[in-house]
Design a protein that fits this description.
This protein is α/β, with parallel strands linked by helices. The chain has a domain of 148 residues: Leucine-rich repeat, LRR (right-handed beta-alpha superhelix) (Alpha-Beta Horseshoe), CATH 3.80.10. The chain has 16 helices and 17 strands. The chain has a 17-stranded parallel β-sheet, with no helix packed on it. The longest helix is centred in the middle third of the chain and has 14 residues.
């Protein structure tokens, strides 16, 4: 049994009703429910008396250190079988870390701990690392984003990594680490016995200086499948170093996020080689990099290589124009694996989308999700888009937000949605102006086809 409630003010009577339900739940999710430490006292009792409870998610509540202390009393009881604990943005400080350390040391069932968006600080997380080093701790996933960590945390983290072969996922994004600390962390990861599968280091003050060490992790940890270094100024030179590790035969990367990394079209030669030869790679994000049309054309050539198995490509806000759309269309008509294309916030224009639709409607194309928000589109391209929607049954999600489509364009899209052959289930139309008559048509369409969700 699962209890999943979000963004609801829980009255005392409603809370009492839910407590009865929780006694038999395997999963309890209560994000954004304005919970406080007093609720945690009740939840502690639930944890203690419900041995089937394996996941507790309490993100974005004002629990505070006192609330976590209550929770941990339940977590430390012999009857507790909790595996996943989410406490993101719960107003915790370093004071909570001593209590959580006790849980990590004594509760081998706990495999996931998510405590990001809390002011734990370096001192607090050092205490958590002590708990991780206990032989009883079997932690597999640790999320520490936005925890006000500094470079001083790395020694404690490396010690924990050395003693924790079970660890699979480590997220340290949005902490002020810097190159020196990231180098030390990577050296520790190479030496550690853990089989890390996910490493997130977004917005950690990384430059090209630490990319050789990250590359070494990629070469030496064949278990690593998910790497995110977005929002770091690694530049083209840093990307070239990363690609040395990414192209190594032992690297089995599947998901690579490089958004806002100061990359230019010069990086696209290396990226193209990666896309065309690394058959494990299924998702890459290059959002907010100045790739330009020339860079995109190189990427499209790589997508046409039979060895490319890429399923998701994110190139939003990359300085693209109509000029690259013929190449994108050709790639869509050739690559059978690509399912998600985020190409919004580029100046594609109606002419560019007309070209894209040619590739989209090719029998080889298997696109499921297409994002074209803020692409300078007008009603002029909507007839072609409508044809693609009605004929391409694999297409289930379409984003046309922030384009001046007006009544004429929206009506053409609605005509496509009404057709039985159209399989679009989610249509995203943020910040588009239309008349009250068209609004009525959209509402009527949702009523007649409840499987269609129109988000505006």
């Amino acid at each position: 049994m699962e209890l999943d409630i979000q963004c609801e003010e829980l009255s005392p009577s409603r809370w009492a009703e839910l407590l009865t339900t929780m006694k038999s739940c395997k999963t309890i999710r209560l994000d954004d429910c304005n919970l406080s430490s007093s609720n945690c006292e009740d939840l502690s009792s639930i944890i203690n008396t419900n041995p089937s409870l394996t996941e507790l998610k309490l993100n974005n509540n004002e629990l505070g250190d006192a609330g976590v202390e209550y929770l941990c009393k339940g977590l430390l009881t012999p009857g507790c079988s909790l595996q996943k604990l989410w406490l993101q943005n719960c107003n915790l400080t370093s004071a909570s870390c001593e209590t959580l350390r006790s849980v990590l040391s004594a509760q081998p069932s706990l495999t996931e701990l998510h405590v990001g968006d809390n002011r734990l600080g370096t001192a607090g997380v050092k205490v958590l690392c002590q708990g991780m080093m206990n032989p009883s701790c079997k932690l597999q996933k640790l999320q520490l984003e936005y925890c006000e960590l500094t470079a001083d945390i790395v020694e404690a983290l490396n010690a924990a990594l050395q003693s924790k072969p079970t660890l699979r996922e480590l997220s340290l994004s949005n902490n002020t680490l810097g190159d020196t600390a990231v180098k030390q962390l990577c050296q520790g990861l190479v030496e550690a016995s853990c089989n890390l599968e996910l490493l997130h280091l977004e917005n950690c003050g990384i430059t090209s200086d630490s990319c050789m060490e990250i590359s070494a992790v990629l070469r030496n940890k064949s278990s690593l499948m998910d790497l995110s270094v977005g929002d770091n100024k690694i530049g083209d030179s840093g990307l070239a170093l990363l690609c040395q590790g990414l192209m190594h035969p032992s690297c089995k990367i599947q998901k690579l996020w490089l958004w806002d990394c100061d990359l230019t079209s010069a990086s696209c030669k290396d990226l193209s080689r990666l896309i065309s030869t690394k058959e494990t790679l299924t998702e890459i994000s290059l959002i907010d990099n100045n790739l330009r049309d020339s860079g995109m054309e190189m990427l499209c050539q790589a997508l046409k290589d039979p060895k490319s198995k890429l399923q998701e490509l994110w190139v939003r806000e990359c300085g693209l124009t109509t000029a690259c759309c013929k190449a994108v269309s050709s790639a869509l008509s050739t690559n059978k694996h690509l399912k998600v294309l985020h190409i919004g916030e580029n100046k594609l224009g109606d002419a560019g989308v007309e070209l894209l639709c040619e590739g989209l409607m090719h029998p080889n194309c298997n696109i499921q999700s297409l994002w074209l928000g803020n692409c300078d589109l007008t009603a002029g391209c909507c007839a072609t888009l409508a044809t693609a929607m009605a004929t391409k049954q694999c297409l289930t999600e379409l984003d046309l937000s922030y384009n001046p489509l007006d009544d004429e364009g929206i009506r053409k899209i609605c005509e496509a949605l009404r057709k039985p052959s159209c399989n679009v289930q989610q249509l995203i139309l943020y910040d588009i102006l239309w008349s009250s008559e068209v609004d009525d048509e959209l509402r009527a369409l949702e009523e007649s086809k409840p499987e269609v969700k129109i988000i505006s």
